[in-house]
Amino acid sequence: MAEQFNDEQAYVDLTTTALQVCQGRIALISLQDGDKMWFRTRVGLDALQIPKDKSFCECAMAFCDRILVVEDAAADPRFADNPLVTGPLGIRFYVGAPLVLSTGLVLGNLCVLDSEPRKLAAEELDMLDFLSKQVAVMLEKSRSYIRPQAGV
């Protein structure tokens, strides 16, 4: 009997692949949920969500169809005072590729973070873009960008 496709494992696999491609410490599928960013899938981080105004993802979502790369967040005036940079996580590197539905709606990002500054090659950015498009297709087909409600 053929093994059944597992959506959840596919999200984890895509997130893990993004982590490996970009050689980071944390990778997330981050989705906007009101004033929070909800982590649909996360590797290397225990938190389930973060206030949107404290996340890198809010800025990345403003780029819509482009990847946001922050090579050194401590040196970037947009993020230098962010608690993710100045606090215990000590984030220095961020790259986020938008998750865009066929309607053009940007749901969130596939992102990779690290505590060390870094640059990515064009090939790594291309691969992250490819992975983010796969995540967006899966989210749209399964409608799993809708956060489960407690008690439902």
UniProtKB/TrEMBL annotation:
**Alphabetical list of Pfam families matching this protein:** GAF
Q: Where is the GAF domain?
A: 14-137
Q: What are the record keywords, sorted? A: Plasmid
Full protein name: GAF domain-containing protein
Specify the domain of life of the species encoding this protein.
Bacteria
In the UniProt record, does the keyword Protease occur? no
